[in-house]
């Protein structure tokens, strides 16, 4: 955001500082709100209406108001002047010139994975440590870092075999 070069502290670093991260977050949220407002305007336009307001055309096509007025003054698109600040433009002619504005991409919520946490489908922490030659503390760190579910029965902590095998695939057993 600040256009300064930086060395990433982690693999997942996108911004140089908390400040830049906050600025990017705010811009993203403002853009989402703007797109929602434009979508509401588009939904309120009747389908059969031939001439639409400049603000509605802006919402439908994503064309700036200045561009629309420039097209009107050049005579590229037909329009109706109903009085002060009441210009209507031809929707059909705009459809021929410009594509509709793309809808805001909504991120689908991730589907929660279903795990069998029965002891027969899981490793204990000790088994993982022996199998992959790791310390118990390292295993616990990886479980927390990658949000792997666990189940404790008595003194044993069970972790799904499928997740552990995916995590440590390629390591010597």
From TrEMBL:
InterPro entries reported for this sequence: HTH_17 (IPR041657), SinI_DNA-bd (IPR010093)
GO molecular function, one term: DNA binding
Pfam families, alphabetized: HTH_17 (PF12728)
Ranges where the Helix-turn-helix domain occurs: 52-96
NCBIfam families according to UniProt: excise (TIGR01764)
The protein, known as: Excisionase family DNA binding protein
Taxon lineage: Bacteria, Pseudomonadati, Bacteroidota, Bacteroidia, Bacteroidales
